[in-house]
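[Meeting: bench + compute handoff]

Bench side (C.D.) handed over the final construct sequence. Compute side (W.E.) agreed to return the predicted structure before the next meeting so the bench team could plan truncations. Sequence as handed over:
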Amino acid sequence: MKISSTATVAMAMASTVSAFAPAFVSQQLSRTASHAALSSQRLFLFDKLFSTSTKDSQYPVYADESVMAPKAHGTSEKPVQSNLRWNCDVATADRISNFNRHYAEFAGYWTSTDFLTYVKEHEDEIKAGNPINFYDSVTGKLLFRAPVGRSLEDFIAESKSHGWPSFRDEETNWEHVRCLKNGECISETGTHLGHNLPDGKGNRYCINLVSVAGHPEEK
């Protein structure tokens, strides 16, 4: 029986496809596995970069959204103090602390205040083991103390690197500081403070200086 030239070509093509099919399928499976591995790696990196807490940590202490419910003055019962420390701007402080959930003072704002001058003037005292106290700009409650467990230079350097005063778990007064599940850092009375942005060292609370520039509450 004669086989036409067209049939011969078709048979040859079929033979070629048959020979290369296993290799092609194997290649596609390999690509699929590579894409899956890449996706998994991306998810891992995303979790590391944007997770709102670190694994196996008892901190942060969480609160529910009700803490930030509307009150007499935004999310607080009253405005910020009228004479904030370090020459922080009162209007900015009130807007960020009481009428805001997402925005912040501009990066580096804290270095434009009198804060670093204060640090220089009290450097010996701080290095002798007396951390700087940071009080709620609304209530005057103690929220943070720094540096704790690191040098003054490390605290300042990290804060400059990130653009805002940056505190660690051990520098946070958990009697009055809380976090929401989305990472927002707040006071127990509704003052917006900043956000928890963990890094390779653990939780890092990136805080607006204007929100923690209050004078201690009167007893």
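W.E. noted at the follow-up: Residues 51 and 198 are 7 Å apart (CA to CA). C.D. will use this when planning the next construct.
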